[in-house]
Amino acid sequence: MSGSGRAERLLETAREMNLQGLNRGTAGNASVRLADGAMLITPSGLRFDRCEPGDMVVIDADGHAEGARKASSEWRIHFDIYRARPDAGAILHAHPPYATALACHRRPIPPFHYMIARFGGADVRCAAYHTFGTQALSDATLDALRDRSACLLANHGMVVVGRDLDHGLALAIELEALCQHYLLSRQIGRPVLLDGTEMNEVVARFGSYGQARD
Questions:
Q1: Of 74, 174, 176, 198, which is the active-site residue?
Q2: CATH architecture type of domain 3-208
Q3: What is the pLDDT of residues 40-96, one digit of tens each?
Q4: How far apart are CA 135 and CA 93, in angstroms?
Q5: Is the pLDDT of residue 214 over 70?
Q6: What tens digit of pLDDT does each residue of 117-149 get?
């Protein structure tokens, strides 16, 4: 895919995040990996429905922005994940209502449902709180994402790591749905959690889940 094609696809994904209720207004951001350690990320403080593909910002391998717009304030999270995770092809950060509500309690999401295993383990961790846009928040996010494809950010929102933009969007939608299910289940008491053996089996089965990829 050409550079302009990637910019168009990134903007489409960012707009779809809003349509799916994952973000509102100028909240959240998305990025896609480019060649040679670079990435393409959404701009800071602009509504996606008013952006053009040319508003997307290239961050080079040294962390320098290229383009007419200022990169998202959370560019460090994206940049550091790409450097640490060869499996990361796209990253989405969002402030959806259910995930954000849970993040404000600074607790991980436990194995109340087998689909938690889709994110790599028996829980979805919550990263420690730090001010947005800081290196400290990026470091905490990387720690929470260890062996996982998603995490919550305390008093903030969610981050998901996908192999591409479509995969990342699917994970974000799934995580928000699970957060809703968890909050609903807590309204009638403490849900029964799956044990380690049960979750290990599900994690293993997710290794071949879905359609084969070329």
A1: 74
A2: 3-Layer(aba) Sandwich (3.40)
A3: 999 999 999 999 999 999 999 999 999 889 999 999 999 999 999 999 999 999 999
A4: 16
A5: no
A6: 999 999 999 999 999 999 999 999 999 999 999
Closest C-alpha to 102, from 126, 122, 121 = 126
pLDDT at position 212: 44
Residues 6+ apart with CB under 8 A from 101: 179, 183
Q: 12-21 pLDDT, tens per residue?
A: 999 999 999 9
DSSP string, the chain: --HHHHHHHHHHHHHHHHHTTS--TT--EEEEE-GGG-EEEPBSS--GGG--GGG-EEE-TTS-EESSSPBPTTHHHHHHHHHH-TT-SEEEEE--HHHHHHHTTT--B-SSSGGGGGGTSS-B-EEPP--TTSHHHHHHHHHHTTT-SEEEETTTEEEEEESSHHHHHHHHHHHHHHHHHHHHHHTTSPPPPP-HHHHHHHHHHGGG-S----
**Quick check: is 74 catalytic?**
yes
Q: How many CB atoms lie within 10 A of CB 1?
A: 9
Sorted by where each begins, the domain ranges of the chain are: 3-208
Cβ atoms < 10 Å from Cβ of 160 = 29
- pTM, two decimals, is 0.94
Phi-psi region of 197 (alpha: psi -120 to 50; beta: other; left: phi over 0): alpha
Measured in degrees and rounded to the nearest 5, phi and psi for residue 58 equal -85, 130
